[in-house]
User: What shape does this take?
Amino acid sequence: MGFVMTMWNTAMHETPFMDECPQGPTPGNYELWEASISPEKRRSYPEVLGTQMRWLTFRGRKGEDVCEQPMSIQDPPLTIVEGKYSYGIDLDGNSDGTATPKSCAHRTFTGMNGEAGVDNQMYRLLGCIQAWRSTGHLETNANSQRRTGGLGMILVEITGVDDIRNDDDVKVTFYRGIGSFNLDSKNNVLPFGSYDIDIENGKPRYDDTVDGRISNGVLTTQPADVRLPLYGNYQYLNQLIRDMRLELNTTESEKPAKGMVYGYYAVEQFYDYVRGLLSNFPMRHKYSCPAIYVAAHELADGHPDPDTGKCTTLSSAFKFEAVRAFINHPSKVDAVNEAGRKTSLAANRP
Assistant: This one.
């Protein structure tokens, strides 16, 4: 069986009145810059987006870009999630949040179905930033870009399937797809489209394989480090999710199947994404890079550094949707043609 992911969001439990954030949404770059100067000085700046963005971004003590150099200024602490409930699972096997050999002490959540010891520090970090919530623009914009451009396309292939409802031993492989999504007139991704695997030198760029099982039509995988492509907001990431586990309803044939990905996300990898958002784009109005940088390191709960003992990853949960798809594997002819094309390009390069 093959699937192509059509939507990828950070999993967040959001109440109508933002009860999980009793202090309200965390202030962004614009609010912090506005509070740092007098109304008279603020009115003296031209009402031009590019001009304002420069002052918002380059507000370090010596005019540094505060996203490139987050320690160049001390912003107010990030407002973090204080609520009790969260999506996610118990990743470190310790429900009370005390430290283990592979995790640091941290506060845990109660799961959406009452499960104890849910680890999701990424939600605690981002849940009070309006731009990351479902009504914000960051992930909405990223999903729209992926759907219209086909960039960062994730393909999931399940092999060794004897029964789509119950099978104790299957293999799950993750690929990067190339080309465009097959869309209908309402911009929905059509099921059972054909997608090619991205290859280089005759081999897939991404091809991590993990063990899995299907029970009552739900696929689950064993923990493993998995690389997945990600594109959004004009940047591309080669993201590594440590101890990743996937859940996916495999019985949906025509409707989008819903799934979850759980695992640990490296702090530095996440901050590369935050820092990479375009400096001349209004996205930077909505969050404080320095506050995110400090809080992400403070909240990190996974994979302690062997030298310092400080944790380097954030427990995370992601929601995704996927539709059934045909995954086209490269043939030997494709590999020869790809090698020949690169040789030809190299020979004709000035």
